[in-house]
Write a structure and sequence with these properties.
single chain; 288 residues; alpha/beta; Rossmann fold; 11 helices; 8 strands; globular; AB_hydrolase_fold; AB_hydrolase_1; ATP-binding; hydrolase; nucleotide-binding
Length: 288
């Protein structure tokens, strides 16, 4: 199915923010009393949540967006870090008139969500950290995984991105049995974004976020009780031992391993399981 058929019924628009320029969002379920904001991973874009917005919009006001420097949002050439992106989230919420929202962040999105929740707890309902970055890496394997990911990103930075280099970057996200999901539409969408002149100027700045990973760890002890760590056993970065250690530091939190075959993108790979879990968690705070 096309991404645009998945998103049929969502409004795609651009929102002006005070300090971060114009931000592209996808929105559905306006009028529902509670809001979920979905945050994508590094070098990504809002289509990472194409499979989730419409199903969850029956019960929630749902928003996915491109970070500043990503997707089709403004791309000022500046230093980037998770704290800055957390401030962007706050400004976007202000621009949309949203005082408080549930957050679901994948990879960099979890990292940003964690910092935002720690800094502005009054603005966060429930928090889902989905294969999140920004947690301490406690194994040699986890450290090697991070170095491998940095090198993989550099293929699209140090050289002109190609179909093959973007395909490799996307396949890294996906369980080997789900590689059919990395189709021409998804590859060409991201390739076109990467080939924009303003994107080419920005990509080196974005990779620096990963290089300085340990300088911006989430303050786990400040996360809200009830935080959900949503993980997979085949996550290619931030391995199971690291997430177990991180979850143990958050009082009242829970850890859920996706049962379906998934790697780094469970919301895109195990769609029904993710959507069912998200609906239950954001309604009640319960996981099972």
């Amino acid at each position: 199915m096309s991404l645009w058929l998945d998103l049929l019924g969502a409004e795609i628009r651009f929102v002006d923010t005070k300090s971060f320029g114009t931000i592209r969002i996808a929105e559905a379920g306006k009028g529902n009393p509670e809001t979920i904001i979905f945050l994508h991973g590094i070098n990504g874009h809002l289509e990472a949540y194409a499979k989730n917005l419409i199903p969850l919009s029956k019960d929630f006001h749902v928003i996915a967006y491109d970070y500043v420097g990503h997707g089709l949002s403004s791309k000022p050439v500046r230093d980037y870090d998770p704290l800055m992106l957390a401030e962007q989230l706050g400004e976007l919420m202000d621009a949309l008139g949203i005082e408080k929202a549930h957050l679901s962040g994948e990879s960099l999105g979890g990292w940003v969500s964690g910092h935002f929740a720690a800094r502005y707890p009054q603005r966060v309902g429930r928090l889902m950290l989905n294969t999140s970055a920004g947690i301490p890496i406690v194994t040699e394997k986890g450290r090697a995984d991070l170095e491998h990911f940095i090198a993989l990103n550099r293929r699209n930075i140090d050289n002109t991105p190609t179909y093959e280099s973007v395909q490799a970057r996307l396949q890294w996200l996906i369980h080997p049995n789900n590689r059919h999901l990395v189709n021409d539409e998804l590859i060409n969408l991201r390739l076109r974004i990467y080939l924009q002149p303003e994107s080419r100027a920005m990509l080196p700045k974005l990779n620096e976020i990963l290089v300085h990973h340990d300088d911006y760890l989430i303050p786990l002890e400040k996360l809200p009780a009830g935080t959900l760590f949503l993980w997979t056993h085949d996550n290619p970065i931030h391995d199971t031992e690291s997430v177990k250690a991180a979850q143990a530091r958050v009082p009242g939190s829970s850890l859920y391993f996706v049962k379906g075959e998934s790697a780094h993108w469970p919301q895109y790979e195990s769609i029904d399981e993710f959507n069912t879990l998200a609906l239950r968690f954001f309604k009640s705070g319960q996981v099972e």
